[in-house]
Fe2+ transport system protein A
Amino acid sequence: MLKMSFDFPVPLSSLPPGGVGRVVAVHGGRGPSLRLRRLGVRPGALVRVATVGGWGGPVLVEVDGCQVALGRGLARHILVEPCGPSPRDGH
């Protein structure tokens, strides 16, 4: 079993499928930050990476019971504290 231990926030795009993180900051302009907040991706929210598209494709995350597809570039602007794999993954 892979244990993730980080002493600092990492970009959401760096979490593997099944990884869970708590959002600590969203960097970027006002427009993207507002859009993410409306989708539930805001500081304090728990997000779970469902899948990561190959070749720079989108990152599909679950937040507040909904699935949201984020471009890889946008996912790099979301900083999270990794919490480990999702309990639903059985890890």
